[in-house]
TrEMBL record, chain A:
UniProt-listed InterPro entries: Aminotrans_V_dom (IPR000192), Cysteine_dSase (IPR016454), PyrdxlP-dep_Trfase (IPR015424), PyrdxlP-dep_Trfase_major (IPR015421), PyrdxlP-dep_Trfase_small (IPR015422)
Family: Belongs to the class-V pyridoxal-phosphate-dependent aminotransferase family. NifS/IscS subfamily.
Domain Aminotransferase class V, residue spans: 2-365
Organism whose genome encodes this protein: Ureibacillus endophyticus
Cofactor(s) the protein needs: pyridoxal 5'-phosphate
SUPFAM superfamilies for this protein: PLP-dependent transferases
Superkingdom in the source lineage: Bacteria
Keywords of this entry: Iron, Iron-sulfur, Metal-binding, Pyridoxal phosphate
The keyword Metal-binding appears for this protein: yes
Family annotation (Pfam families): Aminotran_5
GO molecular function, one term: metal ion binding
Protein name: Cysteine desulfurase
Automatic annotation (TrEMBL), chain B:
An example molecular function term from Gene Ontology annotations: ATP binding
Homology family: Belongs to the ThiI family.
Gene name as annotated: thiI
Reaction equations catalysed: [ThiI sulfur-carrier protein]-S-sulfanyl-L-cysteine + a uridine in tRNA + 2 reduced [2Fe-2S]-[ferredoxin] + ATP + H(+) = [ThiI sulfur-carrier protein]-L-cysteine + a 4-thiouridine in tRNA + 2 oxidized [2Fe-2S]-[ferredoxin] + AMP + diphosphate; [ThiS sulfur-carrier protein]-C-terminal Gly-Gly-AMP + S-sulfanyl-L-cysteinyl-[cysteine desulfurase] + AH2 = [ThiS sulfur-carrier protein]-C-terminal-Gly-aminoethanethioate + L-cysteinyl-[cysteine desulfurase] + A + AMP + 2 H(+)
Domain THUMP as annotated: residue spans: 61-166
GO BP terms, alphabetized: thiamine biosynthetic process; thiamine diphosphate biosynthetic process; thiazole biosynthetic process; tRNA 4-thiouridine biosynthesis
GO cellular component, one term: cytosol
Name under which the protein is recorded: Probable tRNA sulfurtransferase
Keyword set includes Hydrolase: no
Keyword terms of this UniProt record: ATP-binding, Cytoplasm, Nucleotide-binding, RNA-binding, Thiamine biosynthesis, Transferase, tRNA-binding
Localization (cell): Cytoplasm
Source organism of the structure: Ureibacillus endophyticus
Pfam families assigned to the protein according to its UniProt record, in alphabetical order: ThiI, ThiI_fer, THUMP
Protein residues bound to ATP: M184, L185, H209, F210, R266, G288, Q297
EC number from the UniProt entry: 2.8.1.4
Length: 379, 402
């Protein structure tokens, strides 16, 4: 099987699984317990936290472990909105956010928050000028994803941060689920985001593990209430094995970052060229400036599902643009926001690379895709 | 990487005539200790400054990271070298100034030309380099009186040295240059701050902690160990003496009236601390007491507690407000550890109405019915000693997992 759906999820690395098993076997005590075993798992948890904090460039205390990207995004949005009503009830986000951001914001909208959605150009990138114009005195939160999950557009996070911090009191949340471990993203004093969401399973870690990290101490309300774990901000017994496994996956990803970025970029360029050679029957949604590990395109008048099945028959796994929404039969909001030509809106498929993807996989894909095109389109 | 060495300017010790040599060698040793986990450093010390060679980028990062917490350093600067020709100097000046390229800054060039054979005069170098930097970066302007950045150039016999940042050090005196004291470390907010303040004045410390299992938990002991470990970043190794205190503490509870229990407990702690102090050759005892903060910290209580020894008791926080103490604790990074919510030896068996004005005679009378000496001997003898910073071995059991 050639797995090219790493933005949906990745296969956990052996090393990460070993960590997960070992921690479950040897350090399973509740880190909040006061017996020796508890102290020990707590020490291990602290180490994992410190490792994540170092990678992200913040203090240990500003890293909380969650159950994944969706929770981190929900937490950032509800938490900041609820704790800062005195600053206002205006939120800015983009048209192409992940559903976990958009749906949270919709709930707030129903609660009386005013929402502005930044539009994107045909490359999937927001306009900084529009951001500047929409910022208001009572803007309490700006939530912008770093890399779009469906087509890989990279948003100008640093420039956006500068504008937000200079001209408003808003907290700047960045959904880095698709970028962390694949591109550099970290806190940089005032020049960066205030909150970053991370998911473990996108970087060869485990499903059900994530991080929300803050640049500094934040005024944020908890989403999960109970025993006051994670400094009172995220109750529930901390899943130490998941946390440690995530810290390990993150370390491995960051250590390989330069290497893998080079690799992905090479494949990205190669495949862009390959797809362009088919001419006007293929529309590429991704751009050469987008994230190197995601490549989305569409075949004219062809349902994505058919393409996926045809490739699958040849042992190649790709997905429609987003795994989360691919079972729903409606056209993706990202595809619409990009103003994709009508003949192409239903056929978007996404290739996404990961740490286990090889050169051979890419060649196999090219071969299979050529066959599929012949079969389906007679090209 | 352009940085080749770190230049260190001494703190107060520059003014201390005779002891200067000792102070410098003390600082040197402390620096070596602080960085003994990276490759051995090449340190050259001079009368009023010290140079540390940098070999790798990693070394540079570690040095810059830890240098600000070492006492006895007034300020430090990363330094770059280049060949003694104008072209190389121009190139290097741009590389150095590049770190400020995103900011709107004013600057000036300061030249020291100790090699008088260099063909250009100081003011000519100033003009050449200054002009070159200005041309290359539109955000920079010249300001001679109070520049944001001073690009310092020194023309020496062997090379040209350049630096642009002067980073403030921790000040104070090198730890160990003012003898050794024993710190009573409870695990609360105050005692680590007290330790920090005396360390800043050059005192080497060892710490003593009273451990009363099962009344206090492993968590609370771990907290104290973490605090001791955190204090080591100020440039010294610390030994922590953990005294088994349960037996004595329960005996006190059973033998003295409950409202004087606190005073007697403190007196016994002090007696034990004094014994340990003697054994380790320390001169004083340091506590985090602050006047009036709690019942045991009134002048009357302090008198009653002090009564058991003639050893100087250093109380650097005596006149500090709680908020001021918290501020320092946050600054030095011990606050978060201190507020972990575990029982410590001071909060168990606390009576509802402790005496705030105990009388020494009465306390002595109550204590006279119990023989504590032998228990004290035993507690001192059975103490466990931990060394900080922790050697990596004990932590390594997690290394594979992460």
């Amino acid at each position: 099987m050639i797995y090219l759906d790493n933005s949906a999820t990745t296969k956990p690395y052996k090393e990460v699984l070993n960590t997960f098993i070992q921690v479950n076997e040897s350090f399973y005590a509740n880190p909040a317990s006061i017996h020796e075993a508890g102290v020990e798992s707590n020490t291990l948890l602290d180490r994992a936290r410190a490792q994540m904090a170092k990678i992200l460039g913040t203090d240990d205390r500003q890293v909380l472990f969650t159950a994944g990207g969706t929770e981190s995004n929900n937490f950032a949005i509800f938490g900041i909105a609820k704790a800062n009503t005195h600053k206002g009830k205006h939120i800015i986000t983009t048209e192409i956010e992940h559903a976990s951001v958009l749906e949270s914001i919709r709930v707030l909208q129903a609660d009386g928050y005013e929402i502005d959605y930044l539009s994107v150009d045909s490359n999937g990138v927001i306009s900084l000028q529009e951001l500047q114009e929409k910022l208001r005195k009572d803007t309490v939160l700006v939530s912008i994803m770093h890399v779009n999950n469906e087509m890989g557009a990279i948003q100008p996070i640093e420039e956006a941060a500068k504008i937000i911090h200079e001209s408003s009191r808003a907290t700047f949340h960045v959904d880095a689920v698709q970028s962390f471990g694949k591109m550099p993203i970290y806190f940089k004093d005032d020049a960066g985001p205030d909150i970053i969401s991370i998911s473990g399973h996108k970087i060869h870690g485990l499903k059900g593990s994530g991080v929300i990290a803050f640049r500094k101490k934040m005024n944020i309300a908890p989403l999960l209430l109970g025993g006051g774990q994670e400094y009172g901000l995220r109750s529930g017994t901390v899943a130490v094995p998941q946390a440690v496994a995530l810290a390990k996956a993150a370390r491995m990803a960051v250590e390989d970052l330069e290497q893998s970025m080079k690799k992905y970029r090479k494949w990205h360029n190669e495949l862009m060229e390959f797809l362009t050679s088919f001419g006007s029957v293929i529309h590429i949604l991704s751009t050469p400036n987008g994230a190197a590990h995601i490549l989305s395109f569409s075949v004219k008048d062809l349902k994505g599902e058919i393409l996926i099945n045809a490739l699958q028959k040849r042992g190649i796994i790709v997905s429609t643009s987003s795994a989360c929404s691919s079972k729903q039969k409606k056209t993706s909001h990202v595809v619409l926001a990009l103003k994709t030509p009508p003949n192409f809106v239903n056929g978007v498929i996404r290739l996404s690379f990961g740490g286990l993807t090889t050169d051979e996989d890419i060649q196999q894909f090219k071969k299979a895709f050529t066959e599929v095109m012949k079969e389906l389109k007679g090209e | 990487m352009i940085w080749k060495e770190i230049l260190i300017r001494y703190g107060e010790l520059s003014t201390k005539g005779r002891n200067k040599k000792d102070f410098i060698s003390r600082l040197r040793t402390n620096i070596r200790n602080t960085f003994n986990d990276i490759a051995p450093l090449n340190i050259h010390s001079e009368r009023d400054r010290m140079h540390i060679e940098i070999e790798t980028e990693e070394q540079y990062e570690v040095l810059m990271d830890r240098m600000p917490t070492i006492f006895g350093i007034q300020s430090f600067s990363p330094v770059a070298y280049c060949e003694k020709d104008l072209e190389s100097m121009k190139n290097l000046s741009l590389l150095i100034m590049e770190q400020f390229k995103e900011q709107q800054i004013t600057f000036k060039v300061e030249v020291r030309r100790s090699d008088k054979t260099f063909p250009l005069e100081s003011h000519e170098i100033q003009r050449e380099i200054g002009g070159h930097v200005l041309r290359s970066n539109p955000n920079i302007s010249v300001q001679v009186r109070k520049p944001d950045v001073e690009l310092r150039i020194e023309i020496r016999k062997d090379a040209v040295y350049m630096m642009a940042q002067v980073i403030p050090g921790a000040g104070g005196m090198p730890v160990g240059s003012n003898g050794k004291s024993l710190l009573m470390l409870s695990g609360g907010i105050d005692s680590p701050v007290a330790g920090y303040l005396v360390m800043k004045r050059g005192v080497r410390i060892e710490a003593i902690h009273f451990f009363s299992p099962p009344y206090t938990s492993d968590h609370s002991l771990q907290k104290v160990k973490d605090l001791a470990n955190e204090l080591t970043k100020f440039g010294a190794n610390i030994r922590l003496h953990v005294i088994p205190f349960t037996e004595i503490q329960t005996l006190i509870r059973d033998r003295v009236p409950s409202n004087t229990l606190m005073t007697t407990t403190r007196r016994l702690m002090m007696r034990i601390a004094d014994k340990v102090r003697e054994e380790i050759g320390a001169l004083g005892i340091v506590t985090g007491e602050s006047l009036g903060q709690v019942a045991s910290q009134t002048l009357e209580s302090l008198t009653a507690i002090n009564d058991v020894t003639n050893t100087p008791i250093l109380r650097p926080l005596i006149a500090f407000d709680k908020l001021e103490i918290i501020q320092i604790a946050e600054q030095i990074g011990t606050y978060e550890t201190s507020i972990r919510p575990y029982e410590d030896c001071c909060t168990i068996f606390t009576p509802a109405n402790p005496k705030t004005k105990p009388k020494v005679d009465k306390i002595k009378y109550y204590e006279s019915f119990t023989e504590f000496d032998e228990l004290i001997e035993r507690a001192v003898k059975n103490r466990e000693v931990y060394r900080f910073p922790e050697k990596n071995e004990s932590k390594d059991k997690f290394a594979d997992l992460l």
